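thread from #wetlab-drylab

HS: before we spend reagent money on co-crystallization trials with zinc ion, can we at least see a predicted complex? here's what I'd submit
DV: go for it
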Amino acid sequence: MNSPAQLYKLQQIDLEFQRKRQALNEIELQLNDTSLATAKSDLASKKAQLAEVEKKQKGAEWELEDLQQKVKQIKDKLYGGTIKNPKELINLDLGIKELNKNVRKKEDELLQLMSEAEDIQGNIRSDNQKLEGLTEEWQRRQQTLIQRKSEVEAKLASLHEDREELTKQISPEALHLYEQIRTTKEQAVAKVERGRCQGCHITLPTTQWQKAKAGNLVQCDSCNRILYVE
Ligand SMILES: [Zn+2]
């Protein structure tokens, strides 16, 4: 194999390596997907929210019981027959009315909290279902991704070996020129087809591509790439 052919082969290995490297990056990005973790933390915060509402609900229940107890005590006094003073009786009656207002307020508050808790419970149920689906899907996807990752890594290792093996056979000047052009261009070697450089599509002088075909290191005058004729 002459120098241009070797360099063209090297370029194919390098391009394939680049593609596989990119594929590996994409797989790693997908493996780092955080949507499942986000769903889990959303669910946890809803559970915390529910606990908070249930605590308020408990508190409201106690306060309501307390108020009802007070109403009962005053009613017992009022209808117990021990108090005869009309003014005192009127005051007791007013006290009951005031307490009943508070009872109704507390009952409303309790109903509000119960309905809030129900809403959150409903959300938690549907989130739990979604999370189950997400987890199953993720486990399947993760398996596929891990398998693909190891395939791509094996391919990268074998490309690396191929490159090592090939570069041993290429002359240092040719390799140096290839690496130098590659610092500014993705592809340092251009095929010549029907007398045209496939890097920049300019028509080359016949003598130039014939030299390249004979195995000489010839660069395109226009784009500087190393010319390779099959
Ligand atoms: Zn060119």
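DV: Residues 1-19+171-230 form one domain.
HS: ok that's useful, forwarding to the group
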